[in-house]
Design goal:
By secondary structure, the protein is of the alpha+beta class. Helices cover about 55% and strands about 10% of the residues. The protein has two domains: about 170 residues, Up-down Bundle (de novo design (two linked rop proteins)); about 190 residues, Glutaredoxin, CATH 3.40.30. A hairpin with a 2-residue loop joins strand 1 and strand 2. Helix 9 runs antiparallel to helix 10, helix 9 crosses helix 12 and helix 9 crosses helix 13. The termini are far apart.
Amino acid sequence: MPVSTLNRLSIIFSALGLFVAGYLTLSHFQAKDVFCGGTSSCEDVLNSPAAKIGGIPTAAFGLAAYVVLLLLAFLRTTKVGAEFSKLSKVGFAISAVGFLTSVGLIYYALATIGAQCYWCMASAFLMTVLFALHAAMVKADAPEEPDKAGMPLAVGGAMLAIAASFIMLNVDAGKAPPSGTRITGVTEAQKRLYIPAAARMKGDENAKITVVEYMDVNCPPCRLAAPMVEELIASYGGKVRLGIKHAPQPIPGHETSPNAASLLTVAESKGKFWELYDLMMDPKNETTVKSKEGLKALGKEVGLTEAEVNKGVDTPDEFVMNTLSQDLDQFMSLNPPGTPLFLIVADGKDLRHVGPGQLGKVLESAEYADLLK
């Protein structure tokens, strides 16, 4: 393939990348939801810690990379020989960094968040293609004359990408408002059955809104959401409280989740639930909670006796088993998509359950305004 054709392809794919990264960046700064095919997966990824670097949206770094790659492609249309080759090598270095970064971010989203952003995947694909094109240009012989036809292609591609990004901002995100799943016909007395015991509650007992989280200690999205949820609850100044219920999942990597839940139940009976919960959810203990010995060590750290620790991890009694069974049965009755699941129990309102990416927006909706005054 002629090297001029490779460069024209790099113009096209850089312009497409400019559109994708530009749309994500503009959406962030204008606080708009992105179009995500009717799911909240994009929102979950774009609200994760990986979505920002030093307070700057990760998409903005991608935008900068695509702008530079497009500029280099335009300059190559005017260059020949060694100058063309030099610009190709610069583009290769930038696209290589972009490619490796994209692979890392996609892996993080899948392995840690358990979700995926289709726009991020599109950007990763475009950067991969650009990496391959630049690798091919570095190996190919430089052109002997400028590519005059490539100049208008680069300018036109940049203009179309920028225009498309702004147009996309005005497109409906294509998903239902973040209302979660509404559960109707539940009486106020029945609602109270969803609220955990006081030892598993955090916040003002007079709060009119209770957020009940069904969680699994070994669930990466649960661990990721924990600090953000506590910060969100605290931001309401006592008008919203948080409760925890157990939903250990029988999947690979979660083998100690039932043991962790039963140990937390024992700690709850000793008034040490939140101490142990905070220890278990501390990022430094992510590996510790994956072994029984690690769980026992954390139990002893909060002051549980050896007998209490063994009871929680190895030989839970009938009370502990019944407590966990009730939590899990309730969780399954909600037809959950997975953990974490947040159930909003509010005075005079229908029950709702939402995912972590929806919780803040649902609480901010007009339906709960009267309870947050």
